[in-house]
Amino acid sequence: MTSPGLVTLVGAGPGDPDLLTLKAVKALQAATVVLVDDLVSDGVVALARPGARIVHVGKRGGCASTPQAFIERLMVMAAREGETVVRLKGGDPFVFGRGGEEVEHLRAAGVRVEVVNGITAGLAAVTTLGVPLTHREHARGVVFVTGHAQRGGDPPDWTLLAQTAAQARLTLVVYMGVSGAAAIQQQLLQGLPAHTPVAVIQRATLPDQRHAVTTLGQLADTIEREQLGSPAVIVVGDVLQGLAAVAEQPGMARAA
Ligand code: SAH
Predict the structure, then answer these.
(1) ω into residue 231 within 30 of 0, thus cis?
(2) 254 pLDDT more than 70
(3) What is the 8-class DSSP label of residue 256?
(4) d(Cα 232, Cα 89) in Å, to the nearest integer?
(5) What is the CATH number for 224?
(6) Per the structure, how many domains does the chain have?
(7) pTM recorded for the entire structure
(8) Whose CB among 157, 162, 197, 245 lies 3.0–4.6 Å from 188's, allowing a Cys bridge?
(9) Cα of 15 to ligand 1 centre, how many Å?
(10) 252 domain-assigned
(11) 203 CB contacts (<8 Å, ≥6 apart)?
(12) What is the mean pLDDT of residues 241-245?
């Protein structure tokens, strides 16, 4: 799968290294250069082969979030020098990961590129609560949506999404939504009832994971009270019903 001059975009999953695919581990162990995104856990990076050049291209690496164009140039250069390059990206490279842009850029530069899926955070997060994203009785589908508008772009139409979710019975999974939760909540309430169950899951699958189960009407208050912050996903929908019932019992912990 890996050979010199190849760039492999590898999904690092949500954090727990045990959730990597075998294909991801093989690519990591073959790579001579590994470019690591911010949201990739140290346990995953530790699986790179000894002696590989590890370049942190996010804020944690000391760069004030390396500009995308620079990362793309770096990948092309390393591939042309004959390196076997892995680009490690949190979750799945093709879910809010700019993987599409990177593939286009590499192909345009004549560099061979492969993509290895990872478990996306929205899927893993809700699974840690023992809750499915779809359920024959509660949800016929699921929407992964970003809470963050692209620079200069329009934010998602939350009201339309809420109405659609209510009518079509869909679970909503919001990435990058914690800082804008108050506005998202307000608009979702135009289409979904205030008692709709919601979970906020921070650092899912990592040892310091925290989460809270609440309702749409209480979303922003809960985030503030429990001091939940990025990286977190917000899950909205009736698949969480069982958990919400537990959270509402007096004396039961709402957050963990
Ligand atoms: N490609 C990634 C998403 C990158 S966007 C994926 O497929 O998961 C970054 C957002 O992902 C964060 O703001 C947060 O909403 C979510 N995220 C990433 N890792 C997470 C984790 N361990 N727990 C909860 N949310 C996470």
Answers:
(1) yes
(2) no
(3) -
(4) 16
(5) 3.30.950.10
(6) 2
(7) 0.92
(8) 162
(9) 9
(10) no
(11) 15, 209, 210, 231, 232
(12) 79
Q: Which amino acid is at 205?
A: T
**CA-based nearest residue to 95, from 125, 74, 132:** 125
Which DSSP symbol is given to 122? H
**How confident is the model at residue 252, as a pLDDT?**
44
Residues annotated as catalytic are 37, 59, 176
Atom of ligand 1 nearest to the CA of 14: 22
Q: Say how many CA atoms lie within 13 Å of 242 toward its Cβ.
A: 9
Chain mean pLDDT for the chain:
91
User: Probe ligand 1: pick from 10, 19, 20, 39, max atoms within 8 Å of CB?
Assistant: 39
**Same-domain pairing of 176 and 101:** no
pLDDT tens digits for range 23-79: 999 999 999 999 999 999 999 999 999 999 999 997 654 455 678 888 999 999 999
* Integer angstrom CA distances of residue 95 from 52, 65, 118, 213: 26, 19, 9, 24
Residue type, 138: H
- 151 pLDDT higher than 90: no
* CA-closest candidate to residue 144, choices 117, 118, 119, 123: 123
Q: What is the pLDDT of residue 4?
A: 64
The residue among 56, 90, 116 that closes a domain is 116
Report how far residue 51's alpha carbon sits from residue 33's, in angstroms, rounded to the nearest whole number.
Answer: 9
| Residue where the block lists tokens 């929407």 | 143
Contact between 34 and 53 (Cβ < 8 Å) = yes
